Amino acid sequence: MTPLIEARKLTIQDQHGRKLVDNLSFSLASNSALTILGESGAGKSILAQALLGILPSGICQTGEIKLFGKPLTKISQSQLEAIWAREICFLPQEPSKSLNPIMPMRRQISEVFEFVHLQKYRKATQSADESLTQLNLDGHGAKVPSRLSGGMSQRVAYAAATAAGGKVLIADEPTKGLDRRHAAATIKRLAKYRDHGGLITITHNLQLAEELGGTIIIMRDGQIIEQGDASAVLTEPKNSYTQQLISAAKKKWNRPEKLQQPKPIITLENVSLSRGSKQLFHDFNLTISEGEIIGMVGESGKGKSSLADLSLKLLKPKSGSINYHFDYFPAERPKVLKLSQDPATTFPAHHPLQILLTDLQKKHRFDQDHVEVIMNELGLSAKLLGSKPHQLSGGELQRFSLLFILLLRPRYIVADEPTSRLDMITAEVVNKALLSYLEKHRAALLYISHDRRLVNEISHRVIDLDQTN
């Protein structure tokens, strides 16, 4: 039987001749799953773009890609556009890249029903509402993306990507930012593509890869280093890097010792906050002390990011007070900083990272030696500084976000899903860097994650918003 998607000796190079993907060959059979795992920056996302024929300008590709048995080079642009969504759906890693920032959610989905399925406006709106209800998003259709949590945006992006009814889905980190319940529901939806069409999944999530089964590919430095049946590879890996990935996923963390007689640095007193008609917090109290790690868990939409933004004074409470117990002059070196769950929104899009880093050095006067030490700690190559944000993987960009934060030596850090875009080995590196910084500088950390095991292991105490509101 003709494969749905096939790649033969595929090589992708950037404008500097650097190989992003090196001599890859694989195929996706009908009614099957192919899962691609690997380190951040291994070339997984650029591979997905190549399969869809949407490589950025300046990127060179050799080898062959076939869609439904036809070489991609022999498919015209109009034919390719007819394939998108109708035959092959694509869910990108970042919802911000697939959602219109000023269009309500309902309309973003209804447009697909209206212009692809040719439904009348009212029927298309009804179909969009049904999609939102299936994803537990009823009541959110009138909101724009910025009014949703990261997990909600991820589910809306899924609804918009799959509304056209394509039988093959290419999903880039589909469970990123989702709580356990919604991640489990997403896995069930992905399984339908596996069983009744075809599924290519790019992920760092070993549990997702195991549950989807099928064929698994392990990538490193743009190359396939191990390939085979998912169950066999994950239980008896032959390559040492695959073994490291699996070992890192099972790592147990030792909670840092609490400081003796720590001083409070931030207090939230009788804080109340609402989002529209929904009350998120009422008379909420929290004291954050130096050197303390506070974990925060809860389903999407429960207010995790909102509570974090309150502590950073990025949101104003409806009532109550937020007090900093240290000198705070925002115009000087900031003492409270946030590691965002969407690093693409952190950096200006059109400036190389070297320029942004140089500007930061000029303003805050830290040593170049200090930059190099932290970059090495985070596993970041100096070669990446010449890149613009969109040229980096989500994991690389997340580590650069953390680099900029650690260089400024804040007293308090909010880490919002800091490792959701990272492979297990790199996630371990990032968590070690965070914990090491806290110990050296007596700083406090609010760590937000859907990984309850990790949160329980590293935190001195945990706020569970599923229990408190």
What would your notes on this structure say?
It is found in: Cell inner membrane. With 469 residues, this protein is α/β, with parallel strands linked by helices. The protein has helices spanning 44-52, 77-83, 105-115, 121-134, 150-162, 180-196, 206-212, 230-235, 240-249, 304-311, 353-364, 368-377, 394-407, 424-441, 452-458, 465-468, and strands at residues 5-13, 19-28, 33-38, 60-67, 70-71, 88-91, 168-172, 198-202, 215-220, 223-229, 264-275, 278-289, 293-297, 319-324, 336-339, 412-416, 444-448, 461-464. A six-stranded mixed beta sheet has the order 6-7-8-3-9-10, with helices on both faces. The chain has two domains: 5-249, Rossmann fold; 264-468, P-loop containing nucleotide triphosphate hydrolases (Rossmann fold, 3-Layer(aba) Sandwich). A hairpin with a 2-residue loop joins strand 4 and strand 5 (70-71).
